[in-house]
């Protein structure tokens, strides 16, 4: 990235209707470097665990198939991908 900022992230959930929004915002580089290496502050790419893996598997199935092609176990490594936000 270029510029004076890094990326911050926060998930906002609405309990009334069950919707969720991911909010990305600029954050100071010094603040980012303090917290980015701590796992609990760095955001997972798939934030909803098995439900996210099942969604990825279904999205990669052949057109018109009812079941996912390779299954969620094939994409298990994606649970550990971080997006480098705080």
Describe this structure as you would to a colleague:
- This protein is an alpha+beta fold.
- It has two helices and two strands.
- The mean pLDDT is 84.
Radius of gyration: 16 Å
| Morphology call | elongated
Terminal residue distance: 15 Å
Can you list the strand order of the major beta sheet?
1-2
Mean pLDDT: 84
Structural class: alpha+beta
Query: Beta-sheet strand percentage?
Result: 15-25%
Helical fraction: 10-25%
Provide the succession of SSEs: EEHH
The low-pLDDT segments are none
How would a crystallographer describe the biggest sheet?
A: 2 strands, antiparallel
Number of helices: 2
Count of structural domains:
2
Using DSSP, what is the number of strands? 2
From the structure above, extract its key features.
2 domains; alpha+beta; single chain; 86 residues; 2 helices
Topology:
Elements: E1 5-13, E2 20-28, H1 29-35, H2 50-59
Antiparallel strand pairs: 1-2
Quick synopsis:
The chain has about 90 residues and is an alpha+beta fold.
